Amino acid sequence: MKAIKARYDGRVIVPEEPVDLPANTPVRVLVPEADDLAVLTRGSAKLSEASFSRIWDNDEDAAYDNF
Q: From CA 7, how far away is CA 15, in angstroms rounded?
């Protein structure tokens, strides 16, 4: 499955990037509610903490801790 950014122009869904699909290909459009987006954003940030901690916690970057 592929995620494609798009917008609704009041009549149809318009992709914000080229889409390589044959005409009439069935697609599923998921529209997040405002609360869903906030939950996804917080969840993504939380899941990223461990990775960022490993990457940023090193002696070479310690100089930036003082800024």
A: 7
Examine residue 57 and state whether it is found in any structural domain, yes or no. Answer: yes
The answer to whether position 12 is within a domain reads no
The tens digit of pLDDT for each residue in 2-39 reads 888 999 999 999 999 999 999 999 999 888 777 777 88
Domain count, the chain: 1
In sequence order, which residues have a C-beta less than 8 Å from that of residue 19 and are 6 or more positions away?
A: 4
The DSSP annotation for 1-67 comes to: -----EEE-SSSEEESS-----TT---------HHHHHHHHHHHHHHHHHHHHHHH-SGGGGGGGG-
Domain span including residue 41: 32-67
